[in-house]
Amino acid sequence: MATKLDKQTSDKVSFITFIIPEFASGYKMDVQEAYFYLKKYGGLDFLYEHWWTLHTDNPYWAIRSMGHICRDNGGNRS
To answer: Tell me: the pLDDT tens digits for 27-77?
Structure first.
């Protein structure tokens, strides 16, 4: 039996499943490559922690912030 997600969890999942492909597109990666890049360089941790703030702004700024976090942690995508 499937359980229903609460609204906040549902919103979080929706945003994360939206923003990772947007990040991939912005950095010319496929979605799987983007996921592993974000995971390796701290972008996912940042996204999980700050999703609420990130989802209220233009997606461009969320993608840019995630890119900065990854570069600060050794990622080299431009």
So the answer is: 999 999 999 999 999 999 999 999 999 999 899 999 999 999 999 999 987
Question: Full-prediction pTM beyond 0.70?
Answer: yes
Encoding tokens for residue 57?
């702004």
Give the Cα separation of 67 and 78 in Å (integer).
8
Tokens of 41: 């360089």
Pairwise CA distance, residues 72 & 11, whole Å: 28
Query: In the block, which residue shows the tokens 């974000």?
Result: 38
Q: Decide: 41 and 70 in contact? Cβ < 8 Å.
A: yes
* DSSP-assigned states of every residue in 11-71: HHHHHHHHHHHHHHHHTT--HHHHHHHHHHTTHHHHHHHHHHHHTTS-HHHHHHHHHHHHH
